[in-house]
Every structure is written in C-alpha cells, then in structure tokens.
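QA checklist item 7 of 12: single-chain prediction sanity check.
[x] sequence parsed
[x] length recorded as 235
[x] structure emitted
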Amino acid sequence: MSAADASVVVPAREEGSRLERTLDSLAAQLFNGRLEVIVVASGATTERVARAHPAVDRVLVDDRRAGPGPARNLGAAVAGGEVVLFTDADTVVPPRWVRRHYRHYAAPEVVGVGGPLRPLEGGLRHRALFRVLSDWWYRACWPVGFVQQAGCNCSVRRTAFETIGGFDDDLRFLEDTDLSLRLAREGPVVYDHTCPVETSARRQGRVGYARLFWTYLVGYLEYALPGSSPTRDYF
C-alpha cells in the first residue's frame, strides 16, 4: 500500500469520455494531505484515459464486469489511505470534496460519510427531483436509521470497511445501501448536506423518474424480505 492520508476509488466501465472530466475534478482537489487516486477500469478506452491522466496513481484492470460493488472492493483492497472515498466515472466532485469528507474522521468514532447528489445535466425537472430524491430523502431517512450513502459520494474509514467485508459482491443493486447499513453497526455514519457532487442524470432521463421510483421501491422491499435479495442489474 502507498503512503496516503486519503484514497479515492473510481470504478469506470466503458466511460472513457466521461472519466476524464471526473479525473480533472480530482486533480483540482484542495486537500493538504497525501491523496491517491485509483481507477478500476473496464474497457480499453477507459483504461487508456486513466493511464494517461496525471491525477491517477494506480490503474487496476477489471475484466470481470461484475458490477460497481466488486470494482470498488478491488480498488479499496490496494488503497493506502485510512479514509477511502468512492465516486463514479460520470461524476464531477467539487474542489473541497476530499477535504469535506476527511474532516469528519477527526472524530475517531466516525466510520463513514455521505453527501447529496446534483444533476450534471441542466433543467428544472432534474434539479428539483434530484433535490427531493438525493438530498431531502437522505435527510429524512438518516435520523431514523435508514442510512444510505450514495456510491458516487461516500467515504469510509478503511478499518471499519475491512471489518464488515466491504461491499457485498453478490449485490448488483442497492450495494451502497447495504454497505451503509452494515457500516452503521460499527459506528456513526455522517450525512453532510454541504458536500454535494454532480452526477449524470442520463439513466433518469432514459427510463424516467417514475420507473426509477418503482425500481427502488421494489429493490427496498426485496432487500427487507428474509431470504430475498435485489440482485437485478441497475435498470
């Protein structure tokens, strides 16, 4: 493992054109500590973009295509930072993103941090629905114990992440919710509403918000039922 204070893991599957924008935002981080960036790449173009970008410290090739959870686990396994942050290859993070996450770990009991999502694409509809579904929903459910770190805007204390075994490799949907709920058994998971990221609304635009709501509702029910699991692919 490299000597780092914080590590960022970016799973990227066939995201060459979008990945560069994500990496540019990571290169612009205003963080005083030692930061490493790890890309878990699937696809020749994605791998080429990752290897060429100066912000990237390490590129791991993932030929399994088993989903975001296993890819994040692969990156976290080689991360040197005590704090490991996760974002996606269609996401742009603000300049103080790492710093805002990292500051919460000054409290030794904190094991995880999550934040809200904003749409990269313009339009009042996207902005309003993201605010409701990817911010206000989190603010409402977090205090009652339904902790949901979004996979593209979350961080973990590496020791706690290792204790719970990381993301569940068998889950291809709600793997970030599952991680959050198991992580919360180890200690406080903080929701920081002042730490948003901008992420693509392409899926929402393609399938519609009504189907999005239904997909998550069914997934939550499957997750809650004994002996059941939301193993479907995301959309």
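[x] summary fact logged: The radius of gyration is 17 Å.
[ ] second reviewer sign-off
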